[in-house]
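Justification of computing resources. Each target in the renewal requires a structure prediction run like the one illustrated here; the chain below, 256 residues long, is used simply to show the kind of job we budget for.
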Amino acid sequence: MLKKHIIPFSVVAALFIMAKVFAYQMPLAQKSLLKEEKFNTTIPVTEKPKTEKKSLMAQLNFADETLPLGDRKVERKMKKILAAHTYGNTQTHRLQRKAAEWFPIIEPILAAYGIPDDFKYLALVESGMQAGVSPKGAAGVWQFMPGTARSYGLKVNGGNDERYNLRKSTVAACKYIKEMYKGLESWTLVAAAYNVGDGRLRKQINNQNQDNYYKMRLNRETGGYVYKVISMKQIIEHPVRYGYDKPKELLAYNAE
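Resulting structure tokens:
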């Protein structure tokens, strides 16, 4: 009888021990499988997207209005005028001094009238390289003709010529620029009109049935005017690129 009871008891005990061992080994086996799976899994390497370097023409603009890309004639002209404004060809110290003196006054006035900041470079192009009255009678930082100056609130007489007052003449320039923009609806065209006159430019737009400055046939001075302004902007914002080895002196706008 005892033997009969011992055999089933031994079987049950053996099964119990095997169950314990199996239960203990299961987590270990799972961990081992996870480790092996993790080890064998190849993590795909995500390649960084290649950032295409913009061409020079794609970087250039006036008041966020870009030049026509792919136009070789425009590109050649732009590069030629840029080359004319490199370190060896420009009165560096005069530019530095004028920008440092004028921009902190001009910038907030342009902003107050809602005019793009790039228009401050017109002042450098207009009179940054020269002083006094032009052969046609234009004077001051913004090179106003006497009649235009008076029509925008400036006093021009023998004893008082407010064209030489930077703050007042900038306010007058802003009024003039804003008025031209209402009809032209392009800051690039406004810049060109500042050079040749609003009426003359409108006449050319109508005659040529063309309102893209870069596609228009204009006199030599006006046809290169916006290119010259963009060049001025480039050498002030990227001086080292154009041969100026003292960039801090050229960064005369509010960059603090």
